[in-house]
Protein 1
Amino acid sequence: MTDFDVIVIGGGPAGCYAALTAAAKGCTVAVLEEHGVIGRPRHDPGWLMESEFTDSVIDALDGRVPWSRVKEYRVCRAESGETIEKSTLGGYLVPRDIFDREIAALAVKAGVSLYVRTGVRKLVRSGGRVTEVETNSEAVPRVTARVIICADGIRSTAGGFASEEGLCQRSQAKPGISYLLANADVSGGVIEHFLSPDPALNYKCFFAHRDGESYFTADSYKGFLELQGREDNALSRKLKKAQTVEANGFGRALSGKYGKYFEKVVRNNIIFAGDASGGAGNIHGMIQGKFAGTVAAEAVRDNDVSEERLSRYQDMVSATLGEVPFSFFSAREDFGTFNEWFRRFAEITRGMKADELAGLI
Ligand SMILES: Cc1cc2nc3c(=O)[nH]c(=O)nc-3n(C[C@H](O)[C@H](O)[C@H](O)COP(=O)(O)OP(=O)(O)OC[C@H]3O[C@@H](n4cnc5c(N)ncnc54)[C@H](O)[C@@H]3O)c2cc1C
């Protein structure tokens, strides 16, 4: 079958959770993912922000995804290593590839049809609405649906569908490399976040899943080796004996509002979720997925997939996540401290749970 109630473009956490929700509410749903493997390449250190929703996901997945609690989120001066602030509201660390794969597998269990190696190349309109999509897959070249959930990640803003649909200006994606390090001087369960007037050191982070083992990002391998070779700061000392055991490229949006939602996140019968809506964050994206799947399913049920009807999603995002977005690079500017950012996020999402996962495991 290539005719569905809902098509989800992109099999990341936002897309798979949206698909799972819509399927759990009775829709026929397809996820179209251009990569051959869900969760790879693994560019993300797998930090899940603290919230009741996160607790409920971790509870539901227990045993299927290894996780550790963040014991401490520490913000330090890169030069001296001195602690600026500490929080114990740090949430969890999970391997993002296994996490994504398990969410996708549960979406399939909920009835979702998942097509990998199926990149969407074109949205085809009829009467102003998108009625079908064209893909690069010989197996499923065209798929039709009533609602499209666009969860195609950061690419959406850099020439993908969010920019094509006019939600944002087409931005360049700034490239970087995410490393998994062995033998770094880090303690398991601790996130260390460095601030500095030196751009090479500023916003560098260790996400330590285990003692010595941490995710870390740099602009390039040369940049990583330069950091490792420096003697003038505490961060470089932590890297001294580290070796890179995995490296994955990534892109980050160059729009100045990283992690903050576009003014409009619904266009005709298309709902934008996750990074494709200007937002960011794994848990933020999954909660958006829950909202998107719910609104899409209700619209299909009531036979009204107009922009006006789907805009309820926009209202849900604005009233909650829009108040406390994943503003990683401006958290201190926006909320004063990281701790306050975490506290406000937990507060605004209180009562939201991943109930859609119940019964699937
Ligand atoms: C270096 C780095 C570190 C980060 N660390 C964290 C962190 O620790 N915690 C956190 O919460 N957030 C973190 N983030 C942000 C987080 O990774 C994203 O917000 C999250 O992955 C967004 O999920 P998503 O489902 O919207 O998009 P993605 O996870 O990017 O998924 C989008 C999917 O769409 C697919 N796709 C794209 N175009 C098409 C197409 N045309 N057709 C079909 N499929 C398509 C892609 O292949 C991809 O699988 C980090 C980001 C970066 C860059």
Note: The domain at 6-65+94-172+256-357 is CATH 3.50.50.60 (FAD/NAD(P)-binding domain).
Protein 2
Amino acid sequence: MSNPGAIHLATNLGGKLKREEVIDTIEKYEKYHANYGGDEKERKENYADMVNKYYDLVTSFYEYGWGESFHFASRLKGESLKEGMKRHEHFIALQLCLKPGQKVLDVGCGIGGPLREIAQFSMTSITGLNINEYQITRGKLLDRKAGVDKTCDYVKADFMNMPFPDNSFDAAYAIDATCHAPDVLNFTFNLVVVFSGYQKPPFDIDDVSLKVGCYKEIHRVLKPGQCFAAYEWCMTDSFDPNNREHQSIKSEIELGNGLPDIRTTTQCLEAVKQAGFELMVLECVGLAPKGSRRVQTLLEKSAKGLLDGGRKGIFTADYFFVVRKPRLDSSSYEAAGN
Ligand SMILES: C[S@@+](CC[C@H](N)C(=O)[O-])C[C@H]1O[C@@H](n2cnc3c(N)ncnc32)[C@H](O)[C@@H]1O
């Protein structure tokens, strides 16, 4: 258990929420979900608001119960929870063959538990990308305490639309995070462009739609020939969308975890390929998970959904893959000025 998490939990439920905002926030959050009359379209359209409400509410609970890393991990016989989590993180570093000095992207970094562990283990410089401001504030503080603040940093942004130039990183990973994406391939992003002053805009539109998706964004910001590794949350191919019990388990997992939808393993694999990646490693491990009162109830429901999903074999939080952005062929290499 992390002491700072316990203090935050005792004194300040949720992230940057004021005490009086908690009830209103959880009510608005719940309304996005099927159990409270919400639908998938609305969750997908409002994914950023939904995810931020969720993490503002639960981050202190997570930190109290889980520590600094917010992901599942298998446990070997005799291994503590913390050791299992670290092994999970080291596994990613080893699968990505990280080398000292490399520039790495952590997509959806939480409060930076994996970032600090992997940066120290592999002597790399990691940028944590996160849409939630409160988590970034916690991450920066914990980085200073761990002494990795000179080599690692955080960027508050949406992984559907990353503020990095093309070909920026030597490696990227996502742990239990891209499951929050409304769409990993094609997502219509509405930018409202506001111009101030007398200068006329260079174009005649006030609403620009960009097609982006988080896998495509990761592909774009990785250098050619470099790899992306992920632990994804997926419905397995045993999931039957017409089975009411399966649907109800899926809805409970979405509600308890701030998810707009859960893709199947097949959809996930197809999406990484369509984003332009080559598949290097693929593994699917079964799930054996063990998280003011309403937030607690929300998390308890989530645990039930996760367990039921794992037991029925229709859900996994451990769909692991490593994919590579193809190397440039010699003509594109020369065209790129090399
Ligand atoms: C379950 S937590 C996992 C955090 C971290 N990977 C770890 O293992 O500790 C999911 C993370 O994804 C982030 N996230 C969700 N949607 C996001 C988005 N659209 N853009 C950036 N980060 C996002 C959340 O804020 C949260 O930090």
Note: The two ends are 50 Å apart (CA to CA).
